[in-house]
Amino acid sequence: MSNPILRAHDLGQSIWFDDLHRGLIDSGRLAEMVQHEGLCGVTSNPSIFEKAIAESSRYDAAIGKLVAAGLNKAADIYERLAVADIQAAADVLRPVYERSGGGDGFVSLEVAPTLAHDTDGTVAEARRLARAVDRSNLLVKVPATRAGIQAIERLVSEGINVNATLIFALEAYAEVAQAYLRGLERRETGVQARAAGVASFFVSRIDSAVDARLNAAIEAAADERTREELRRLLGRVAIANAKLAYRHYRELLATPRWQALARHGAHPQRLLWASTGTKNPAYSKTLYVDQLIGPDTVNTAPEQTYLEFLRHGQVRPTLAEGVDEAEEVFSRLAEARISMKAVTDMLLGDGVRLFTEAYERLLAAIERKRLSCSGAAAA
Fold first, then answer.
1. Quick one: pLDDT band at residue 220, thresholds 50, 70, 90?
2. Which helix (H) or strand (E) covers residue 110, if one does?
3. Segments forming the whole domain that contains residue 268
4. Is residue 156 part of a domain?
5. Is the pLDDT at 60 greater than 60, yes or no?
6. Considering 29, 133, 297, 342, which has the largest number of Cβ atoms within 10 A of its Cβ?
7. Can you tell me the mean pLDDT for 90-104?
8. Catalytic annotation, residues
9. Does 108 reside within a domain?
């Protein structure tokens, strides 16, 4: 039977799941999503693993075994737990990867967010994680900071699949896309097909930040006409931003530079829409899925958004619609003296900080569990 996920796939978009925990795998739910619902990938991040490991007892027995085996650092225990989950999920998605010729069926694992501004550290950890997971359908997530973009080029040149994450600005996306191309070009002729990647462009956080500024401007406006013009921008900026990024992607695929790489079998760096859970209850629960459907894209949805789209998603090629209107949204935003650069710079900084805080909370929780296991063993 068809469903919105399968219909979106028919239009060239893959739906991934923005969540991962051991129960999802062990219960068979992930396999069901892949085999019967059309799911094509999984993403994870430090916040997801914090919730999975720190806020439940699901991993306690595994932590106890690792402690008994001699692991005494929280970071090492976390990595062993995460790698096992990623390997298991990658195995479930392996048929999708093979069926798509290596273009889909990926699972993402992020480098430690504490390395976000360390190019060499990011490269070293990404190499180590790729070796530890040892699955060809792994994507190593690297944040699109200045240091991260340099790391992306180096990793792609080595044939490591990369999910460039925390992209908010059009300019940052353009830099990530160029890094991917340079990485492919640094490889030996005919080897590019082994590298794949996505560029994770964050969506709902844009509207949350811009809407707050718009609401302040509406309150301060001197007349009703101005207030009404500002109201028309509410909830529209994130989708406009994504549509302009997609236009850039399509233009890039038409260049002789990309076509030369494609002739050697290179995979395009698809745009992945991330942060697609609706944060404003006044907006449709599937707003950031329904309005961003188009060829060669991915949408990674958190559980509630995924289920809502599976049941009620509206599927049509919306990415091709309203590009001129997207330009107008940005013009009106500039007229309102709201700086997208200020917004996207803030969001990138906040994203790195929030993931770092989640990672540190996760390690602290594992350390408490480690000490509990050590104490129990000593008693």
1. very high
2. strand 106-110
3. 4-203+257-317+351-373
4. yes
5. yes
6. 297
7. 96
8. 141
9. yes
